[in-house]
Each structure stands twice: as structure tokens, then as C-alpha cells.
Amino acid sequence: MGGKGRLSWLRRKACHNRPLLAQKRLARYNVEMAKITIAPASFLNYQPVPLAFGTSGLRGLVKDITDLEAYINVKGTLRYLMNSGDIRANGRVMIAGDLRPSTDRIMGACAQAIVDSGCQVENSGKIPTPALVAHAISQKSAGVMVTGSHIPFDRNGIKINKSVGEVLKSDEAGILREVERVRAEEYGRSATASAFDACGTLKRTPELPPLDSIAETAYLRRYLDIFKRQGLADVRVLVYQHSAVGRDLLPRILRELGAEVVTAGRSETFVPIDTENITDEQLARLEEFAIAAEAGGQSVSAIVSTDGDSDRPLVTAVLPAAATGPGARRVRFLSGELLGVIVAEYLRADGAAVPISANDAVERRLGELSIVLQKTKIGSPYVVDALDALRAAKRQRIVGWEANGGFLTGSDIELNGSTLIALPTRDALLPILANLFAAAEQRVSLPALWERLPARFGRAGLLDDFPVAASQAILAHLIPAAAAVECDFDRAAGLSASVAEEWQRCRATLTRFFTPALGFDAIAKINVLDGVRIYFRNGDIAHIRPSGNAPQLRIYAVSASQARADQIVEFALAEPDAILRRLERAFT
């Protein structure tokens, strides 16, 4: 089988729907990828590095996202959308971007791809990803968002949505086929005929059309029309602006809803904020903002922010000095997965979808509220699929969210006499506002509101620059070759002898690393829907999973106390003999 044919076959295998086999095929796919050399165009003086799909959208190093690479991927994706009947030739395609230094150049290349695809460009400017997607859906158009979300500034990405919402995992194989065809076309041109020079840069710099603010205005109206105008009249909140693309929109909306707003931390240098991995250093900085505001006579009750493209929320409560002991932190961070529980309750949801990595407080609280819950693999496309399934099951008020806090609505939802239109893509603004309004309407502080959640505490962390091949090798040793995604060892009597043996082997392997000496109880259950999630008899949970869009290996921990959750993450990450490093040495 030739290189391209072999690559396509492996890609189809790697995307197979059965998660256990897919993990092993993905490991093999990565090995085979390394063997396949893409022949560049004769006029290029570098070896191109193709963009790859992560959990959501295309990501890569800025040095690899040349004009040519961005152009090929956008043109290929739009061709797929046209061939599938999602969009039509000569239609509009909306484009926007975040505030990374590389975004403007990439937007230009994407705009050229839109024009050369026979479509018209609508320039929505620098706005949040959900603002772009909401507008594109309302106009039954595709959208192109240039953003690397929360990852460092030396990386960027391109997220393209269909006229009905996000590109799903089921679309990726078709998109990649069209991208390969466009790549062959562009690489086949001569140096004279190509629009790109030897460095993959467009010979003629494209100009974007004049800015059209309709998408930003519609996003503003989305929340001003649904929430009570003076509902936050007694709230003073600090907005940590840093380099988030929604840094001016967020305080504007809060002010128009009655809040008194203080801003801090605005940065013209890109600041990566990963809401799944908020560090002690970042919490210390937020605490400094709160104390500085207090010293200036503007005590705040909350600090809110978002990641780079403003589709993931960050919310911390600020505790009064009198309510904290000496040396205790003045800010309390609530993870996105738990913020989502408050939002689901506020919206009176009857169906919800969350990834398997979520704190099990989600399952407990939604069970108390009789909200039907579907667990998914990690990534918004999987959550969107689950929203569709809930709709088919006749749920009426459908929501979903991720551990990073990005919140999706899978149905129109009536609230305060108005209708919140479905937006099946990650959004940061809704969870921020719903938490603030829930506390204000119940006349309680944010910490008091959050105390009503089940007493389950989570922490996440990661090893950066962790080779993807090493992550896949670890998973290959920890995931049994069985058809089921989960084994409860107290209810495994019905398994065949060979399947039971595989699960016991996995259990024994994990016990070598998650030891009693580190405080881990016996393993009661293992789930391998996405990564390896380990349930211990004492209620602790540890979940190992590679990042879907960066060379990172993540650890998620849940326990009955914050101290224990923090400790699990420390045991997993602390150099040089952390659990994840020992797994790396053992299996790579």
C-alpha cells in the first residue's frame, strides 16, 4: 500500500468508534506516521509539518502553521463542507481570531483560502470563539476561528465550524481526504505558478474586508436579553483581562447587568490560561489583584476571566479577610466541571452531557436533581454528539460542559421570559453569569452557593513536553484488549475468563504505581473510555490521559478532601520519581 493510501487506512482505523481498540490503533498510527515522509513542493525550502486535529480543531507550532499550511487546511475543509451540502459556493464564511501575535498573519492566509474556494469573507475581527460560532449558525454559514485557545503563544490553531455547529469527529476523515487533495494540488504547482514563495508565505499579502461587528453585537445581546438588567446591582467583580480576546466584552456585559466592575492584569503579551490547570502561582496573582482592589477601597466578591479565545471560564470567589485564618488563601477557585453543575441547575436542565474526566460530584448532584446524564470521551465534538442523543431521547432542556468549564446548550431554553438560543459549542460567558446570578438571586455568597455541591474535590495537572509516542505506549500497556470500556471488579462475575484475566492484569499493573505506601486503597473499578480512569475503594479517583492537542500527559484527581486531591496530583507529577515518570520509564 502506498504512503498516502496507507496513511488514510491507518487514519480510518485510528478513528474507529470502539475506544479500546482505537487506543491501540492510534499508537500504531503514530508509529506509522513517523515513517511516512510528505514530499514537499519542489519550490519549498523546508519540510512541511501537517496540522493535526486535537480534541477540538487543528493545532500546531506557529513555525509550522505557514501561510501555505493554513491555506491548504481551510480550503480543504471548505471543499468538504461544500461537497457534503453544508455550505454553498459564493456563500459567506465568517472569520475571527484571538490576540496571539501570530493570529493576524494566519487570518490573512485563511481569508485567501476562503476567497479561492469561491466564498465571500465576513471579517468579524477579534471576538470570542462562541460569538463567531453563534453568528455563523444564525446565518447558516461556516466560520473560521484562528486560535490556539489556552496553549502557549508559540502555538496556534484553526477551528472551523459548519453551518449547524462544530466539526464532529465523524467529519474528520472526510476533511482530511480533501485536505490531502488540496495539498497535492498546491505542491504540484511550479514556483512561478504558486501563490506561495519558498518559505510557504503568500507572495501577495491579502487584506481582510472591513470589520463587521454584527457577530460581537449579537453575542452581547444574547446575554443582555436573557439575564435581568440590574440583577447584579449589589455585586462588585474583578475581571482579570490578561490577553483574553473577550477581555473588553466581559466587563461591558457585567456592567450592563448592574455589576460594579474592577479590571486588572491587562497584558499586551499573550498569557496562556489553562482553566483545567490553574496553578498556585496563578491563584496567588489573583489574590494580589483582590488585595490591591481592597486597598483601593473596592473590595470584590469574585474574580472572573477566560482563556485566550474566551470559550472557557475562570471563576474564583474572594473571601473576606475576617473569614480566613493566618496564611490562608483569600481566593477560592471552583473548577469548570463544578461551575457547570450550578449552570445546569440554574437553567433547570433535564438532560446533560459531560466528559468521563469530570469530578464525580457532577454525577452525584445531577442524580439528586433527576437530570439524565451522559458521559462522553473528552472533547467538545463528543459532547455535541451526546447532546444530539439527548435530543433524540426527548429531553427538553439540554446542556453539556467540559472539565475546563466551557458550557454548551443543546436546545433552546426559556429563562426569565426570554429564549436562550441553543449554542452547541464551548462558551465561557454563560457559566460566569449563571454562577453570579444564582448567588445574587439566592442572596448568598459564591462560597455558600458552592458549599451546596457534594463534598468532592478535584485537582488536575500535567507534564508538558511529554512525547505523544510515550503517552500512547503507556496507554497500550494499561488498556486491556477487551470490548467493554469499564470493569467494576465487584461485578465482574459475568466476564469470560480471558476478559477477566485482561482486566486483572491491568489492575495489577496499576497497583504497582498507585501503591498503599502513597495512600491508595485497592482498585475497585477501571474505565478506559478516554485514557485510564482508576476508582479506588476509599473513593479516590485518578485519571491518566494524554492531551488531545499538545504533547502533554494529564492527571485528574478526585477525593473527599482538597488536600488529598492535591496530594494525588503531586504524587503523579513531582520530579524525579513521580508516578507518571515511572510509567514512562517502565513502558517506553
Account of the 3D structure:
This protein is of the alpha+beta class. The protein folds into four domains: about 1-35, no CATH class; about 50-215, 3-Layer(aba) Sandwich (Alpha-D-Glucose-1,6-Bisphosphate, Chain A, domain 3); about 230-450, 3-Layer(aba) Sandwich (Alpha-D-Glucose-1,6-Bisphosphate, Chain A, domain 3), CATH 3.40.120; about 455-585, Alpha-D-phosphohexomutase, C-terminal domain (TATA-Binding Protein, 2-Layer Sandwich), CATH 3.30.310. The protein has 18 helices and 24 strands. Strands 1, 2, 3, 4, 5, 6 and 7 form a seven-stranded mixed beta sheet that branches. It has a six-stranded antiparallel beta sheet with strand order 19-24-23-22-21-20. A hairpin with a 2-residue loop joins strand 6 (about 155-160) and strand 7. The longest helix has 19 residues, at about 170-185. It is globular. The relative contact order is 0.10. Residues about 1-35 have low confidence and may be disordered.
